[in-house]
Amino acid sequence: MEIKREKIKKNSLEIPCVTFIPPKSRGIVVLVHGYGGMKEETIGLAWRIAEEGFITVAIDLRGHGENKLKLDGNILDDLDTAISYFKSYGNVTAVGHSLGGRLSLLSSADYAIGISPALNKNYSLETVRLLEENRDYRVRKSDCDVFKILNDLPIFQFDSNNSLVIYGSRDFPEIISECVKLDLKGFEVIEIDNALHNDIFLYEPTFKLVAKKLKEWYTE
Q1: Are the beta carbons of 217 and 93 closer than 8 angstroms?
Q2: What is the pTM for the complete model shown?
Q3: Per-position pLDDT tens, the chain of length 220
Q4: Which residue from 67, 128, 214, 215 puts its CA 20 to 30 A from 50's CA?
Q5: What is the DSSP letter of 198?
Q6: 2-213: what fold?
């Protein structure tokens, strides 16, 4: 398997990424970290997806990792730029965690998997405190904080044929409540027992669910 550190340059943006290229490709997956994360955190999941035969691209969103832009309300442009760049190679699936999960579900990708997606517009004081204490220091921010960004993002419109939502039984209460609402509406939502919000994307059951869904979408 070939592994490359590179920058996607398109639409006047530069998106730092690590790309995993298997010997034979079924399709393309763009992988997106959560708030306060970076592409390096998602490399384990990227590797596992690439082992299933998908070109897998882990990116840095603006304000995070090696992306030089500060965090602002145009953050979805980073993901859509990466998706647009790779669409010339075939259908693209966006897979994201938390903030990245919300962005993946809203993106221009052909398919999307949201892992513990931050679908809410409002969050409790406790959730705000936890993010500020544990994640803010890793983010280069403009005047726009993540909660304003989440509030301003469009409401996700679920497509049962092209979307999957995964969340943990020990997730943030806001994440659980929104995922349960989708489940009750009959959409494809899967709860992973014992999984926590912060590391659900590193959990073996998550790997297996993502691989299973990708194989369904990209039948040979």
Answers
A1: yes
A2: 0.95
A3: 999 999 999 888 999 999 999 999 999 999 999 999 999 999 999 999 999 999 999 999 999 999 999 999 999 999 999 999 999 889 999 999 999 999 999 999 999 999 999 998 888 888 889 888 889 899 998 878 888 899 999 888 777 789 999 999 999 999 999 999 999 998 999 999 999 999 999 999 999 999 999 999 998 5
A4: 67
A5: T
A6: Rossmann fold (3.40.50)
